[in-house]
Design brief:
The chain is mainly alpha-helical. The chain has one domain. The chain contains eight helices and three strands, in the order H-H-H-E-H-E-H-H-H-H-E. The protein has a three-stranded parallel β-sheet with strand order 1-2-3, covered by helices on one side. Helix 2 packs antiparallel against helix 3 and helix 3 packs across helix 4. It is globular and about 45 Å long.
Length: 142
């Protein structure tokens, strides 16, 4: 999509590092693998994996310094920043779908609720909501 080319000067200068992790959950969602409940369960597992394993690995690779992590993508970028605003400074949604219900329907279970920012964000309060309000989220369409 041209993102790496656009930021190549920053990468070459050592100012930016780029990490990418594949998502079985994203593939399952796009391909319609398994039940709706199973796909939501996979998405929640992926978001937890990013927060509990990928982000700490990135921080370790960067020498343990306090870093700013930006999530790019579309639905997953939005979802992971909304669920874990303490790990991410921003999300860049690159022209994707953001409403999980329109993509897969509505199973009405807890996994769907937490997989869909449209569902769980309105119920947030306290420190998580305060952090989320200070994050930059770009939801581009085109």
């Amino acid at each position: 999509m041209g993102v790496i080319g656009a930021i190549w000067p920053l990468i070459e200068a050592g100012r930016v590092k780029v990490y990418s992790c594949d998502s079985v959950a994203g593939r399952a969602l796009a391909a319609g693998w398994g039940s709706i409940e199973h796909r939501c369960w996979l998405m929640n597992g992926f978001e937890d994996y990013v927060a509990s394993e990928v982000v700490p690995a990135i921080r370790a690779d960067c020498g343990g310094r306090d870093i700013e992590v930006i999530s790019a993508g579309a639905f997953n970028a939005l979802a992971v920043v909304c669920r874990y605003p303490h790990h991410f400074r921003a999300a860049i949604g690159m022209s994707g779908a953001y409403d999980l219900e329109s993509l897969i329907g509505f199973p009405g279970n807890e996994d769907f609720y937490f997989a869909s920012p449209y569902r769980f964000v309105p119920g947030l309060d306290g420190p998580q909501l305060d952090r989320l309000r200070r994050r930059f989220i770009l939801m581009a369409y085109g």
